[in-house]
Amino acid sequence: xxxxxxxxxxxxxxxxxxxxxxxxxxxxxxxxxxxxxxxxxxxxxxxxxxxxxxxxxxxxxxxxxxxxxxxxxxxxxxxxxxxxxxxxxxxxxxxxxxxxxxxxxxxxxxxxxxxxxxxxxxxxxxxxxxxxxxxxxxxxxxxxxxxxxxxxxxxxxxxxxxxxxxxxxxxxxxxxxxxxxxxxxxxxxxxxxxxxxxxxxxxxxxxxxxxxxxxxxxxxxxxxxxxxxxxxxxxxxxxxxxxxxxxxxxxxxxxxxxxxxxxxxxxxxxxxxxxxxxxxxxxxxxxxxxxxxxxxxxxxxxxxxxxxxxx
Length: 311
Description:
By secondary structure, the chain is an alpha/beta fold. The protein contains five helices and 34 strands. Strands 8-11-14-19-22-25-28-31-33-34 form a ten-stranded mixed β-sheet, covered by helices on one side. It has an eight-stranded parallel β-sheet with strand order 7-10-13-18-21-24-27-30, with no helix packed on it. The chain has an eight-stranded parallel β-sheet with strand order 9-12-15-20-23-26-29-32, with no helix packed on it. The N and C termini lie far apart (70 Å).
């Protein structure tokens, strides 16, 4: 998430009431999660296990809960609770604005686009040309939709990320300040839920087709010309490369990559990254031929045991 203008390190420190290490005028351009940070961004870290990863990331400002040696060319914001202060910054630069109408006056809707009754279109949404948005679709603030997109009834674009910190008092939510981007020629079935990024964008690229009742987690990127069948659940920060096929009830854990032109058969569970160009099955998912051989071997166990008894 980029700020509307460049701020200084001192200005950001004053916003959250923190101390800092670095020049007062050190430039701050935005804030992002570690997997999408760029130079000029703030990243937060609140556990020693991840200090090095954050300090060596592309981020040039690290919001951290301990004063450590600052890498050359970077700056630190020292906070007793980086998670809390990251939320403060998200709320400050991307505050929630309540809706005044079913279709916001700030929404941009392209020529030839049809929006059926009961649909909600939030603030600063952009919808391209020749789209069809069916009844009771909800499009949260800031979502971007390309040309020739079809979205069926009851689908929700842009709900918050499922991202919480477990504290003694309960679960503390990480505020979502990102968006959803749907590129051209995408079809989305009924009752799908596509969550916004925490600081960046959950993206479905050109030509992909989603069936009904699919969950897409925050910051996931679905490539071009993918085909995803119903009841598939995709966690956050997943990368699905181009022309991947996921059949019904596939479940995918967070932070992994599925390679180009991979095929995952129904009811498979994916717990680690998969190479492209292969077919997978099972839970945990493995190459389908190998998995089917294993299943065939298991079926032979009763026969083997019976033979052993006879001997």
